[in-house]
Amino acid sequence: MAKRIVFLADCLVTQTAGIHHYAHQFIEQVITTYPDNQYYIVVPQAYGKFDAQEIVVPIKAIPFHYRLRSFFSIPKAIKAVNPDLVIEMAHFGPFSLPQGITTCTVIHDLTPILHPEWHDQISHLWHKLFLNKALAKQDFVITNSEFTKEEIHRYISFPKENIVVCPPHVTTSKTPDSKNKNGEYLLTVGTIEPRKNYETLIKAFDLIAEKYPELKLIIVGKKGWKYETVYTALNDSKYADRIQLLGYVTAEEKSNLYKHALAFVYPTHYEGYGIPLVEAMHYHLPVICSDITICREVCGEAAIYFDRTKADDVAPKVKSVLESTVTRTALINKSKTRSTELSRQKIDLDAIMDRL
Fold first, then answer.
1. Measured between alpha carbons, how far is residue 135 from residues 34, 105, 131 in Å?
2. pLDDT per residue as tens digits for the range 147-205
3. HSE (CB half, 13 Å, CA atoms) of 98?
4. pTM of the full structure
5. How far is it, in rounded angstroms, from Cα 79 to Cα 75?
6. CB of 182 within 8 A of CB of 258?
7. Which CATH architecture has domain 184-342?
8. How many helical (H) and strand (E) elements, i.e. helices and strands, does the chain have?
9. Helix (H, G, I), strand (E, B) or coil at 99
10. Are 232 and 193 in contact (CB under 8 A)?
């Protein structure tokens, strides 16, 4: 029997990084796998990329209206379609719905609560005030990794049996081969914000740049929040002219950057998943990344790991890839293998749909 399913998906419009990509691929997989259901997508403005009815609930120029509409105008719009299931794609909601509607929320990570120093104060306060209350009313939670599942259970005490792990299915842009216009470079991808730890990467680049005079460091990602220290580190770098912060790039541009990079370096402090790692392995890049639980869950043996707090540990790991053909070739082959393994992981949609 066909079901009526509503996705609360502000993040499709308001974000461009990992949460946006997760929501897009998740919704796409659900609609493709279960085409007989009737789908609705709540967004703040037209999105137009799915075979689903869009319910536009605009964000007005009123303080906190972006969040307040989750309690008033969005629930009103949802009730009008009388759904069987409502899925909030990014932490906040669903709120104020009648009993009888199955509800769940997608939790990407808990950094706004566990690491407020990496976020603006408003984001921290909203999560602290409402996340526990929101989850207490959900029938189940969807998350992106086993690591995040453990974090949710440990810090919010949500029952493990009601947490469904759905790793993202990462797709990359199919682009024709293009010429490398950037020379030799290391690549990293992610929003410019404290959690990404670009300061340490810049310091590590400074330690090796003299030995490799043609080498560049390219950082792809738009400005997020609390990014000033990254620009301070850049300005303090002796090799600032060889470090490029490209900001947001198109999918085609990003694809070409992956194709021609010498290696992918990911110095992150914390991730819920780490989509750029999967993208890098898809392009068979040598991956050098932080020695943290989620990076090991995603990459397995297909990476060289470093202490993310020490530039003098990052630098020699990067040098080992640049200088040793054996090391580089082994990592490329491991990236190919791991990428194939990850491509076979699919969202366990039955685990979700069977709850209806």
1. 26, 7, 6
2. 999 999 988 888 999 999 999 887 766 666 677 777 899 999 999 999 999 999 999 99
3. 10
4. 0.88
5. 6
6. no
7. 3-Layer(aba) Sandwich (3.40)
8. 15, 13
9. coil
10. no
